[in-house]
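Hey L., structure's done. Input below.
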Amino acid sequence: MPLHASGVNNYALPLNEAIAFVNLCESQDVPILGGDVYGDKNGKLSITYDNWYVDLQEGEANHDFCTRSCDAARRYLAGFPSDFDGAFALVIAVRRPDGF
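Output:
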């Protein structure tokens, strides 16, 4: 679901799709830096100000950061009921040639 109407240049995913996306990111060694929770209010998504984030630790290898950050995302998402009527905007880490 695009969030552009809310002034956010990102997309939000329903819970089941967010979990699948986390698994896909982990399989490709792409860390999840965190995410924001959006609730459905009268058919429109609006930020709930619930969120999580994971920082890269000094000296941490990309693969280890990826595993840790994806585990943190799954734990956070697992705290929501399967029928949660909202969506999640996830922030992924895109690697530059010189690292993060």
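Residues 4-92 form a domain with the Ribulose 1,5 Bisphosphate Carboxylase/Oxygenase fold (CATH 3.30.190.30). The mean pLDDT is 87.

-- N.
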